[in-house]
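Handout for the seminar on molecular recognition.
Each group receives one record of this type.
Step one: identify the two inputs.
Step two: read the structure output and locate the region that could contact 6-O-phosphono-beta-D-glucopyranose.
Step three: write two sentences on what you found, then compare them with the reference statements printed after the record.
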Amino acid sequence: MALTDFDLVLFGGGGDLSMRKLIPAMYARDRAGDLPPNAQIICIGRQSWSDAEFINALNENARPHINEKVFAQASWDKFCLRVRYVSLDATDATTYQPLNDVLRNDAALTRVFYLATPPTLFAQICHNLSERGLATENSRVVLEKPLGRDLASAKQINLEVGQVFKESQIFRIDHYLGKEAVQNLLALRFGNVLFEPLWRREWISDVQITIAEEIGVGNRMGYYETSGALRDMMQNHLLQLLCIVAMEPPLSVTPDAVRDEKLKVLRSLKPFTPTTLAKNIVRGQYRAGHVEGKAVPAYRQEKNADPDSNTETFVAVKAEIDTWRWAGVPFYLRTGKRMADQLAEIVVRFKAIPHSIFAQSTNSFQPNCLVIRLQPDDGLQLNLMAKTPGDGMRLKPVELELDFAETFKAPRMDAYERLLLDVLRGQLTLFMRSDELEAAWEWVEPVLRHWEQEGNEPLPYASGTWGPAAASALIGRDGLQWREEALPE
Ligand code: BG6
């Protein structure tokens, strides 16, 4: 579907997200021929730069994040002509006139305000846009995570942004939903008959969702200290993945049909009790260690770090979903920085066979396992048992592999490319609704309060490992192992 002409306004236009993700994504879509000829990208910042000075900043900070296979100087130069820079103070409506001057006043245009700013500014920017008459009927607003820092602040954002924009104009972004593999999970579950009958407590033993990063906190200490892994990754990305795995078949892929089903999952998450708070959550912080053979410092020794910081860089949770489909099936979720590997995957482990007709005992059979890999490359792996060739009946685990890049040989789109296109098309399916956001915070809230009250110090883990030993114990208590622990050496 061709895009209608648009003005895209990036608040935080000179910031990290804009440089690393948003500008490269818009460039890639321009290069692919998706952008209308007159579309503008208006970057907002506080520095008083001219357009030319801002283009220099793009060359320095955004250009290195563009895939070399996509980049071509001529098309980049052309793309830069679309970019305007406007200096204003986002908190002060009286400084908004230069934005007014650059925006085109045409009701046929789509106008998008992308707020890549701290969430404390969301409400204020929306009110300012409204006061200056810039938030028109055909405007949309994109809210980048973190969407608040607890339930109360998320509700406040929903309330105040909702005073300016209708729900159908609000795009709450979670870039994990834009990843190819996540959409493939929808295709796998609802485009095939094979898995759905088995996708339930009768046949599934447990589900593991891991997002492991090798990188540390880098130059984001200011933000990360106010957040930690629970707020940064668990409340949003991991819970969204859990929703896609666990939701009932939606009526269609229309926004509300999908979001209604995800909401039901979030509302069915078993609330934590004082016992499960202590038992089912592991909180860790990285110490010095080695990642990819290189010595790396402890979190508390990173640039601008508080040497006594108790911010968690790792969290593992055992979650349960109280529904007929999932009662009793544990969902183990974990995420961490400075881990042993860079990967994101969903592992659905099926139950063991009920009885062996072979000489081998049932416990020599590895249960079937479906691995949906999101990163580093996207693919599927299905573990089966098969007979080894030759005489005798010996069964052994084998793997069916599907590598999507290999299979489709089509160029890959970054999550932000897809999501930005969806915003520009007005397609809300992959964005969170206000009630979903609040339900996710509601589940996480008791954990935050518990940590605050206990002042509980995160467990140390060496950089380059899979997190604190307590994370293995968390799953081990149920007689299970994380996937990497269960793999043969
Ligand atoms: C962001 C977090 O939302 O996701 C970062 O704020 C994290 O801390 C990033 O590094 C991970 O995203 P991806 O797509 O690189 O796995």
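Reference statements: The radius of gyration is 24 Å. The chain has a mean pLDDT of 95.
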